[in-house]
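User: Okay, second chain of the day. Same drill as before: sequence in, structure tokens out.
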Amino acid sequence: MLVVVVTPLYPNAPVTDRETAYAQLSRVGGFQNKVYRHPSGACAIRDIGTRSFALWKLSIYGHLFSVEVLMPAAGTHFHGGDALSREADVYPFSWIVGSLCKLFRWAGGFLQGVGFVGDLQVEATLRNVANRVFAGGQDFLATKLSSVAPNVPANTVVTASELQTRECLSDIFYQLLWPFLPNEDIATRANAGAFVEGLLRRM
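Assistant: Same drill. Structure tokens below.
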């Protein structure tokens, strides 16, 4: 699963109210009619049987918590490189980038909209991923990759406007990717950025 926390560092004061939090989450695509009032704000749930689950929780303090179950694509249907086994289930890196992008864009826009000025602590963690097969696409990350670490963390500190940029998304993705890499050369970070850029153009 992918767990993301976006937290205003200062000031420790409400940036919105519960009704606004509820109304804003109600506008997020995929959560229609699945937004619920919460004592600290609101939460939204997407649950499509056993195929997909995601939860976002937004507090009046601007704290956004998200957890999403990552679903594998069957090897026969995954459009990766030739080095992928056709029998193996593969977890696409593109899904991770897409989920991060949606959350970062929304959170940055929300916090700017309520007039928040300050730094944000951004934490993203891939949980329970040890020995799972991950891959990217035809060119970059075309071979199957796995990590011995059960949990893979990433973090950064940005402003609300910086949260919405390609640079922030690429930085978090690269940190999540690093433990999966069998080796690294000088072009790896640049290739990760290009991978993110290509996905953004198709979104």
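The chain has a mean pLDDT of 86.

User: Thanks, on to the next one.
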